[in-house]
Write a structure and sequence with these properties.
The chain is mostly helical. The protein contains 9 helices and no strands.
Length: about 280
């Protein structure tokens, strides 16, 4: 079969390596620690401020919502830590995956690459990768580099060349995926952990409420209301943490899936083009 693919010597600018540009927080334990310190400070110095309670004493009945939240007990700063961690990691993943998506629309990029491959213009496909940047472009650029190498190789059989191209695609994808999925397991864990910690606070609050009811004589209304407040506040924080973590996790997982589909589609096109033209 006649050679149809145009292998051109790229200009110096096209030889620049394509950088996926995916950054992010490598060690989330520092995020959790900082969020815990902030949550403890907010709990004691803002929520526990005397201005939020009767007679300026946080042991008395609360005067506003901040004081009511303080009455949620020691579980509150733990839940606030989890909630702050979810917010920080969600923002961190948004920034990282925005860089990973590249400078243009991925769907349009896929269509342009497929058009360049159909026309047999590998040099144009490489330029598109250099312009697009991001994870998909980095993987495809590496695969196109192997395409050119195999095109000039006269020792290997066609089937061996196809295997080499496919292997390069898989290796490049495997190198990029960890940076995309970084910190997502923590978000997935917080989805469950937030609910469980909130449930623990709810149970503790209900125990205090029943203790107030079981006291001899008239029930202590202050103790009863404190226990109920603790239960409801912890429930609210737990649900909010779990809901936000679940939304963030599913949203970013979907973005990663879209990038993976684009890589698979273009990888198949590159292998098919090589098989048809060599």
């Amino acid at each position: 079969m006649a050679e149809q693919t145009k292998i051109q010597n790229p200009q110096p600018a096209a030889k620049k390596p394509v950088n996926s540009g995916v950054g992010g927080i490598k060690n989330a334990s520092w995020v959790i620690l900082i969020c815990f310190i902030l949550a403890e400070c907010f709990f004691h110095f803002v929520l526990g401020s005397g201005s939020n309670f009767k007679d300026g004493d946080n042991a008395n009945a609360p005067l506003n919502l901040l004081g009511t939240i303080y009455k949620g007990g020691f579980i509150v700063p733990i839940l606030q830590t989890l909630f702050l961690t979810v917010i920080v990691l969600a923002v961190e993943r948004w920034i990282a995956l925005s860089k990973a998506s590249g400078k243009g629309n991925i769907t349009k990029f896929v269509a342009n690459i497929k058009a360049a491959l159909a026309a047999g213009d590998i040099a144009k496909a490489e330029k598109l990768c250099a312009d697009q940047r991001g994870t998909v472009a980095a993987v495809i650029a590496a695969t196109l580099g192997k395409y050119k190498e195999m095109h000039n190789n006269t020792e290997l059989a066609k089937e061996q060349k196809l295997v080499q191209i496919q292997q390069t695609l898989e290796e490049a994808t495997a190198l990029e995926m960890p940076s995309l999925q970084q910190n997502l397991p923590i978000l997935a864990t917080l989805t469950t952990l937030g609910t469980l910690i909130g449930l623990l606070g709810t149970v503790i609050g209900m125990i205090k409420s029943f203790q107030a009811l079981s006291a001899s004589g008239a029930p202590d209304s202050t103790e009863l209301s404190t226990g109920i407040s603790e239960a409801l506040i912890n429930t609210a924080f737990g649900i909010a943490t779990a809901a936000f973590a679940l939304i963030a996790y599913n949203y970013y997982t979907n973005k990663i899936d879209n990038m993976t589909y684009a890589i698979d589609e273009l990888g198949f096109s590159i292998v098919s083009t090589f098989a048809a033209t060599h």
